[in-house]
Amino acid sequence: MSTKPFRPDVDAPEYKGKYVPYDIIKEGTIAIIVVGLLVVLLATLFGSPDERAITVKAWSNADPIDFATTALGELNGSTVTAKYGAPYNTAAPGQNLGPLRLAQFAGVTIPVNTVRDFVINPLSSLPYDKPLSAALTEWKSASASQQKSWVSNYTAGASKMTWSNGQINVPATNAGPVPELINKLTSMARSGALDQALVTGGGFYTTNYTKPLLFVADGTYLANLAQKQHLLGSQWGMMNETGSYPGQAWLWLYTFWYQVPPFNSSSNADVQVSALMGLLSILLLLLPFIPGLRSIPRKVKVYRLIWREHYSA
């Protein structure tokens, strides 16, 4: 009867050394107690900060000019959401991986029309207000070209926007109902009503925060807070928590790629990094089957350092 030849990079050699008793129950219990005490102690001393969620209300009260500027951007189509493409709209081709247009292939799965969803529909949900009602009627009855002309005229003076006496003031002419819409939307946001309208506008259930999150992200207020808290992608933000606290350190390999060329300057960085990490994950899974690579642990003998007591016996 023949035996299979020994393959040094695959087969484990027969152990012929001494055996030492090992109480795994005792060792496991000690490890759990020690780790548990450390977790409680470190959590007490260095507990994760509990920052309040950034809402549209908080944003518009802290920086009404930024909110009104962003609301105007939703009207004129200049915000990130308005120009994003799939899965929100068809304004851009979206991210691709070489010739593969992945975003277009997935299509618009979460339709967002920034004019309708962020401005007109929320304002239409308010109780009857004669000036607002007249402004909404004027807007809805106008042609698309007329609406664009009003928004363009208002945008032309937006660089001189001011906030006084609870009003947004812009030196603009021939802007139609746009000044009234922006002012009432700002007041709605500062009262907290816009937060609720953006959540409930999609149906009965109020657990989908996609629209308020997109609206807030379109402004500069959230980005400025993120920069102060070291949460931007260029600051290894995925690995941080607010207040420079360490966060998900195990994500270092993923966020590392965003810091180096060509990913740090690519508009397709998200899909490129995802593809690269997918490839690296596959290589890790296939490591036991790749000749040469699978022999590295046996050749470097790090295991002898870890189990030095065993090999010294």
Structure notes:
The protein is mainly alpha-helical and 313 residues long. The longest helix is centred in the N-terminal third of the chain and has 22 residues. α2 crosses α3, α3 packs across α8 and α6 packs across α8.
Write the layout of secondary structure elements.
Blueprint: H1 24-45, H2 56-62, H3 64-76, H4 102-106, H5 114-124, H6 130-141, H7 144-156, E1 162-164, E2 167-169, H8 178-191, H9 193-200, H10 210-218, H11 221-228, E3 240-241, E4 245-246, H12 252-256, H13 269-285, H14 296-300, H15 302-306, H16 308-312
Antiparallel strand pairs: 1-2, 3-4
Helix pairs in contact: 2-3, 2-8, 3-5, 3-8, 5-8, 6-8
How many beta strands in the DSSP annotation?
4
Helix content: 40-55%
Assembly type: single chain
- Mind describing the biggest β-sheet? 2 strands, antiparallel
By helix and strand content, what is the structural category?
Answer: mainly alpha
Provide the β-strand percentage band: under 5%
* Main β-sheet, spatial strand arrangement: 1-2
Q: Rg from C-alpha positions? A: 29 Å
Q: So what's the overall shape? A: elongated
Number of helices: 16
